[in-house]
């Protein structure tokens, strides 16, 4: 090390003016927080009440359908919006249950195997859910609130862990392995 260079550097650093420090920014709640939260709840209600084939309701899906980027939402500026996103998103099993009920109601006169295949739910999970929903009355009229009403009758909420949470199912797709 060159001692002269170190002392010269120290002198130069002492001569520099310190930057003025402005007031600290205090995070505040955005005025649009309540509006965004209401918009997300309305979008979720519309997605859950759809008569067509159910699509998974995720935090990303809700945010994008309402026109916002979920990663740009600050927890300080939009606490109500973020809470609405978490409340309205559904678990995987809740989604599977909606799909199975839709398949049973939309294809009332089809064979069980056809309804199960049209649901798009993985085979082993669909077997468990078909058994779970075997008591569903298929003579009910199918409208926007039928699936949510049937789920409520069975005590299924959006964070439902499934009919058998401890059971492990074989992975679908490329991760599938044969038993040997």
Features:
single chain, 180 residues, mainly alpha, 8 helices, 0% strand, elongated
Strand content: under 5%
Mean pLDDT: 88
Q: Low-confidence segments, ≥5 residues, pLDDT <50?
A: none
Shape: elongated
The secondary structure category is mainly alpha
In N-to-C order, the SSE pattern is HHHHHHHH
Biggest beta-sheet profile: none
**Backbone CA Rg:** 27 Å
Helix content: 40-55%
Distance between the termini: 67 Å
Given the structure, what is the number of helices?
A: 8
What is the number of strand segments?
A: 0
How would you explain this protein's 3D organization?
The chain has 180 residues and is mainly alpha-helical. Helix content is 48%, strand content 0%. Helix 5 (92-106) crosses helix 8 (146-153). The termini are far apart. The model has no long low-confidence stretch (mean pLDDT 88).
Architecture blueprint of SSEs:
Elements: H1 3-15, H2 33-48, H3 59-65, H4 79-88, H5 92-106, H6 112-119, H7 123-132, H8 146-153
Write a short abstract of this structure.
The model has no long low-confidence stretch (mean pLDDT 88). The protein is mostly helical and 180 residues long. It is built from eight helices and no strands.
């Amino acid at each position: 090390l060159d001692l002269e260079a170190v002392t010269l550097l120290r002198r130069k650093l002492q001569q520099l003016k310190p930057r003025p420090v402005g007031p600290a920014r205090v995070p505040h709640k955005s005025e649009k927080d309540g509006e965004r939260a209401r918009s997300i709840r309305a979008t979720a209600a519309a997605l859950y009440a759809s008569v067509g084939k159910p699509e998974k309701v995720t935090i990303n899906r809700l945010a994008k359908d309402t026109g916002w980027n979920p990663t740009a939402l600050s927890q300080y500026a939009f606490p109500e919006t973020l809470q609405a996103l978490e409340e309205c998103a559904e678990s995987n099993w809740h989604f599977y249950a909606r799909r199975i009920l839709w398949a049973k109601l939309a294809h009332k006169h089809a064979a069980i195997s056809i309804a199960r295949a049209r649901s798009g739910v993985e085979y082993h999970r669909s077997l468990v859910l078909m058994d779970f929903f075997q008591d569903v009355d298929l003579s009910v009229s199918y409208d926007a609130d039928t699936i949510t009403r049937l789920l409520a009758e069975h005590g299924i909420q959006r964070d439902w862990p499934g009919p058998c949470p401890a059971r492990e199912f074989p992975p679908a797709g490329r991760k599938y392995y044969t038993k040997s």
